[in-house]
Every structure is written in structure tokens, then in C-alpha cells.
Amino acid sequence: MDISMVRGDTLALSISGIKNTDGTEYTLKSTDVVYLDVKKYATDKTAVFRKSVTAAEYVDGALPITILPEDTVDLPCGDYYFDVRLFMDDENIYTIIPMSKFKIVRNVTDIPNGGDG
Prior knowledge:
It is built from one helix and seven strands; from the N terminus they run βββββαββ. The chain is mainly beta. It has a single domain (3-108), classed as Sandwich (Immunoglobulin-like).
């Protein structure tokens, strides 16, 4: 699952269908955290930005993840990498979406009035 977005835009994603190893639906516990990390290179130690969601943020059986303009506005356009992982309170970690490409592309239209309305 690759993602492409315009630098400085808002991008609303939704994570659903998290499965147990036996294929049944997994219900997040209150102590579980799902992270989406975006890195320039897959081997980087630090993400250029990270988003996290918990069970408290479930909406209609899905976890909303919103990438905000400030997350990407200062990043160079190009290819990045991301994955989505579930960190459980029992110290187990499961990859929900394995490493995939995250592309940031240029915008053409500037924000009117420098964003002042």
C-alpha cells in the first residue's frame, strides 16, 4: 500500500481490519498504541514524522490518522518510507502495514495571502 500526498496538505487516513494471527478481528485494548512512522530512508533511526492513535480514537471500527500540513510542509519532495505497527502493553509488536513507499509531491497553488485568510 503506497501513499502519495501533496507537500503541506492535510491527508486523512483510516486503519481498519486489524486481525489476530488466527484471522479474527482484533480489538485494541486501552493500552495499545498504533504508530505510523515516515522516514526518508528505511534504515534511518528517526522518523521525519510520527503519528500515533489509540483505542480511544476508534471511529466506526477504524482508527483515523491525520497527517497535518505542518508534518510535511518543510520536507523535500521525493520518496520516503512508512509502516504501521501495533505496540501492545504486553510488549508484543505487530506490523499492520509493512514497509511501503510514501511519496511527497510538489504543490502548484500557494496558500492565498500567506495563510492569513
